[in-house]
Design brief:
This protein is α/β, with parallel strands linked by helices. It is 44% helix and 14% strand. The chain has one domain: 3-Layer(aba) Sandwich (Rossmann fold), CATH 3.40.50.720. Strands 3-2-1-4-5-6-7 form a 7-stranded parallel beta sheet, sandwiched between helices. The structure holds NADP nicotinamide-adenine-dinucleotide phosphate.
Length: 247
């Protein structure tokens, strides 16, 4: 039976992906910063481990406790929306620490065992913001776009060892905790000079023509993990698929 480790399982896409792989018969290691036992169905195949992807010690302890892993899903992430000039550089560092360096550190932590076994897959969850430039998301997009380039290059060198690297690109889900999971409020990142520019953008964010469901992402991660062709990108959700097809 195969084992998958997923980061950021306390809510949203990560939680649903953990549910999906449990239902699909996998051993699931669901990781979260503050572990909760009550949000996933009890199962002998489920382990919940603490993990903060911005902490080297936390990563080392979790990888040691996890044992052999067949699939890693780097899903944990935080957002930031606002005018770039008003976004504190300290917050941008935090976004990159989680969305970019956290993914790289987790990837480095699992490569040796996968390389030695000549098997495994790493799935990095980015965003549909990488498929078409969206306004007021410059720093967030940069953090995810870096992982797009990273994963494309990595897929080549890991492919030499029969280890796969994939991208899942979700669209916008108003139903996850993503919009609230930030220490910086959007209102504080829109200076008066940007107010007229931002107003219609926020109005359209509030009435999206298409959105992504948690299950879309879980299914895309499943497809990416099981894909044995050289397909790199898996857009997830109606909005992301439409953007990918338009590109
Ligand atoms: N929702 C969207 O519209 C959207 C669109 C495109 C892409 N995405 C991407 O999809 C992924 C999942 O987002 P979501 O929508 O499911 O949001 P979410 O409900 O906020 O889930 C994000 C998860 O990441 C975890 N996390 C944050 N910082 C962490 C850290 N330092 N170490 C470990 N875990 C950490 C959170 O855990 P805590 O409970 O500890 O905070 C939470 O479990 C993210 O990478 C996000 O960028 C989301």
């Amino acid at each position: 039976m195969q084992t998958i480790l997923i980061t950021g399982c306390s809510s949203g896409y990560g939680l649903e992906t953990a549910r999906h792989f449990l239902a699909g018969g996998w051993n699931v290691i669901a990781t979260m910063r503050a572990p909760r036992q009550d949000i996933l169905p009890p199962s002998e195949r489920l382990r919940i481990l603490p993990l903060d992807v911005t902490s080297e010690d936390s990563i080392a302890a979790t990888i040691k406790a996890a044992g052999p892993i067949d699939a890693l899903v780097n899903n944990a992430g935080i957002g930031v929306v606002g005018a770039f000039e008003a976004t504190p550089i300290a917050h941008i560092r935090k976004v990159f620490e989680t969305n970019t360096l956290g993914v790289m550190a987790m990837t480095q932590a699992v490569i040796p065992q996968m390389r030695e076994r000549r098997a495994g897959v790493i799935v990095n969850v980015t965003s549909s913001a990488t498929l078409a430039a969206m306004p007021l998301a410059a720093a967030y997009t940069a953090s995810k776009q870096a992982i797009e380039g990273f994963t494309g290059s990595l897929a080549h060198e890991l492919g030499y060892f029969n280890v796969r690297a994939k991208l899942v690109e979700p669209g916008y889900a108003p139903t996850t905790r993503f919009a609230h999971n930030t220490s910086v409020k959007v209102e504080d990142l829109i200076p008066q000079a940007y107010a007229d520019f931002a107003a219609p953008i926020f109005a359209s964010f509030a009435r999206p023509a298409m959105t992504t469901r948690e299950s879309d992402v879980a299914e895309a991660v499943w497809a990416a993990v099981h894909d044995t062709d050289c397909r790199l990108r898996f857009p997830a959700g109606a909005d992301a698929v439409a953007l990918a097809n338009a590109g």
